[in-house]
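Researcher: For the record, we're logging two predictions in this thread. I'll number them. Prediction 1 follows.
Model: Prediction 1, sequence and structure:
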Amino acid sequence: MIIETLYTHFLKCTTVCTDTRKIEKDCLFFALRGDKFNGNKFAGQALESGAKYCVVDEKEYAVDARYILVEDVLDTLQHLATYHRAQLKIPILALTGSNGKTTTKELIHAVLSKKYTTTATQGNLNNHIGVPLTLLQMNERTEIGIVEMGANHPKEIELLCSIALPDYGLITNFGKAHLEGFGSLDGVIKAKSELYDYLTKHQKIIFVNDNDPIQVKQTLNSPKVFKFGMLTSTGATLELIKSQPYVTLNYNGTEVKSQLAGTYNFNNIAVAIAVGSYFEVNHEAIINAIEQYTPTSNRSQILHKKSNTVIMDAYNANPTSMLAALENFKQLLQENKMVFLGDMFELGQTAESEHQGIVDYLETHPLGQAYLIGKNFYKTEVNTDAILKFETFEDLKAYLRRTKIENAFLLIKGSRGMALERILEIL
């Protein structure tokens, strides 16, 4: 089926869905396949649940006119998203980076929404499936689209750019994330910079933090750059005032008090202010958006659990973000501090050295009692009683059941797979 014909079917539907557990009435269902599932088998169930049409790529399942047979469902989903994006004729801003993507995306969304009707990536649906779904959620009311792009291998950002066709873009930072797929920090820089490559080639605008030498270097040959930060005399000029415990900054002479914990969030806020400034959002509206934004989903949240205060930053972790969190925690003027750190995933051959590096940091920068959880941390060499290791979460749980933690200031940080938010249930 040609994409134009499929598009007429799409316009008759209320939304797009890929999960039969989340079917909405009159949606367009895409029967995606994975290593452990075949969406074609669930197409009939999707129709029974209220879907208007089902896109399938196995002929035996296309039994009537409600089934749309294509060569490859995923490829069709991506092409339909690009076609739809072209019909909308709206500016699309894409962002990627090693750390802070989702928080930055939400901050940008909050700022731009003060002036425009915006549609942004939901949650972290930022891969080769999530990006098309985000684009297909945009409609004639959308004035600006915000698309988060994630990657753990080379050429993935390049693919996502070819789908979303962004007009603007930014990279939050370059850090030691997904080293299993990228191989090294240089590999990370090269892969993430595929966004810069696309924007430069098509003479689109790049937002650059001029406090980040890698960003500056990677965009030297880019014809259209909007700079921001503490060094620039153009765009938004920003200065960090404090982060005890929330980030407070100076924005062109005005003090802005955020609800985000961690010095590292200064750059995330700076990006959102720069984007808002470029798109001529009112100065006061930008400040209101930043100050009203409340973090969720275990991202830089400050929570209170009985007598304890917790910095909950357990949505994800890599060596760069974990060290940044520890550096911030070290600076906080609190008593009875403790850290709970979970394994960092997708580090490949560097896993052993990177986890040992965190332990070495803790030994040279004591932050109170430290609890390390996971198989990688369990293998590290520890030379102090101030660091306790637990191979599994259940081991930590058993220890905490017989140990009282009261009136403490805690940092909880780990990869998503560690699910360290479970510690709150014990506390």
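Researcher: Logged. Prediction 2.
Model: Prediction 2, sequence and structure:
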Amino acid sequence: MSERWFFALWPDDAVRAALASRLPELLPVGARATHPSDFHLTLAFLGPLAPDVLGCAERAADRIRAAGFDLEIDRVGHFARAHVLWCAPATPPEALPALVRDLQAQLSICGLAADPRPYRPHITLARKAAAMPASDWSTPMRWSVRELVLAAGYGGPGPRYRVRRRWALI
């Protein structure tokens, strides 16, 4: 299977542990939990890339000049069609969609088009989730976002994603 590239926000160890600790109370019967090492919030999905386009995407990220920001993860939801259980900020700070817009503008130089669907920031907690969880997100969780990453998905059992490169948000 070829690598599927994407830019994302990658939680630190403390945020990953906090997410993982909440999963047991949220996980519907039959759902497949995301491996804690794979928790991330996608900014731009790129798919399989030729080496020259991958290099261009890295140079695009080199040009990003965005400040770090805080996310408050305070909502849990379910994409019924995709059978995905997720968590997200109910009200994302303006810095998040601004970062996505800036990244998309830089990636367009590489010929990589932005996803035409509205951006819906979320962290996938589980797949094959046929229903909403019985429990709700009990206490908001703060995540201090300080970096952007380029990662690739490889399929197979978790962890399924590997970070190739990181960029500090200033």
